[in-house]
Amino acid sequence: ATYETLLVETKGAVTVITLNRPKALNALNSTVMAEMVAAMAAFEADASQGCAIVTGSGEKAFAAGADIKEMAEMPSAQFFAQDFFADWTSKVVKATRKPWIAAVNGFALGGGCEVAMMADFIIASETARFGQPEVTLGVLPGMGGSQRLTRAVGKAKAMDLCLTGRMMGAEEAERAGLVARVVPAAALMDEAMKAAEKIASLPPLAIKANKEAVNLAFETTLDTGLVMERRLFQVLTATRDKEEGMAAFVEKRAGVWKGE
Ligand code: HXC
C-alpha cells in the first residue's frame, strides 16, 4: 500500500514505518493516525513480519506533536464526538500483538512523545528531545502522556515535564527509564534494525507472550500478574517451538521456529 504521510518498507522480517511530514516536523494529523492504523494492521497480519520500527523522516524530529494547525480549526464538539485520538490506543496499541520499536531521531514532543511511548520500547539518538508541552497550548496530553509517561518515569519527572512543558534530552530520558538505549544519531537505524531483526528471529509465540506479560504489569495487581505469567509459561510449554527450543539447546544448535 502507498500512504500520503507514511513511508512503509519491509526489510526481511522487519517493517520500517517512517512518519513522513518533514515540513511539519512529522506532526500527527488525522491522516497520520488513520494511516498508522492501516500500516500497523498490515504489519500485524503479515506472517513474514516479526517486528516493526517506527521512526521520523529527517534528522530534526520523530514527531513534534499532534498537528496544532488541524486542532486549531476543529469545532470543539468534534473532539468528543469522534473520541479524538482514541484509535491510537485501541487500533494501534491494543490491536498489535507483535512488537514494535520507536527509533526516536529528534523532537518527540506532545503526541510525538506519546506515540514513542506506545511502542514496546524506545531507542533514542543522542539528539532526541522528549516533552509534553501541551500545557503551553492550554490543554494537556491527549494520547497517553499523563498516564504512560507517569508509569514510565514516575510522578516526579512526569509532573515536572507536564507542568513546565520543558524538554528532556536522551541521556536524562534514559536515566529516567523512558528510553531503553541511547546511541549516536548516525547509528540509530542500525541499532534499531539489529534489535528488530533479533526479535524477528526468535520464536513468535514466545515473543507475543513476553510482550503480553510485560504489559500486564501495567494493568493488574502483582498477584494476578504472576498468575498470568505462569499461565502464559504453561501455555508455551505446549508449543512446538518450546520443544524445538529446548532440543536445540541440548543439541547445541540454533532453533528453527514454526510459530506453532
Ligand atoms: C503542526 C507543527 C508542529 C505541530 C512544528 N510544526 N510542530 N505543525 N503541529 N505540532 C511546524 C511549524 O509550524 C513549522 O511549519 C515547521 O513545523 C517547523 O517548525 P518550527 O517551529 O519552525 O521549527 P523550530 O523553530 O526548529 O522549533 C521546533 C519545535 C517547535 C520546538 C519542535 O516546532 C514546536 O514547539 N512545535 C510544537 C511542539 C508542541 O507544542 N507539541 C505538542 C502539540 S499538542 P511552518 O509552515 O509554520 O513554518 C499535542 C497533543 C495535544 O501533541 C492534545 C490535545 C487534545
Automatic annotation (TrEMBL):
SUPFAM superfamilies named among the record's database cross-references: ClpP/crotonase (SSF52096)
Pfam entry (one): ECH_1
Keyword Lyase: yes
Superkingdom in the source lineage: Bacteria
Keyword Lyase: yes
InterPro entries: ClpP/crotonase-like_dom_sf, Enoyl-CoA_hyd/isom_CS, Enoyl-CoA_hydra/iso, Enoyl-CoA_hydra_C
Keywords: Lyase
Family: Belongs to the enoyl-CoA hydratase/isomerase family.
Name of the protein in question: Enoyl-CoA hydratase-related protein
Organism: Novosphingobium organovorum
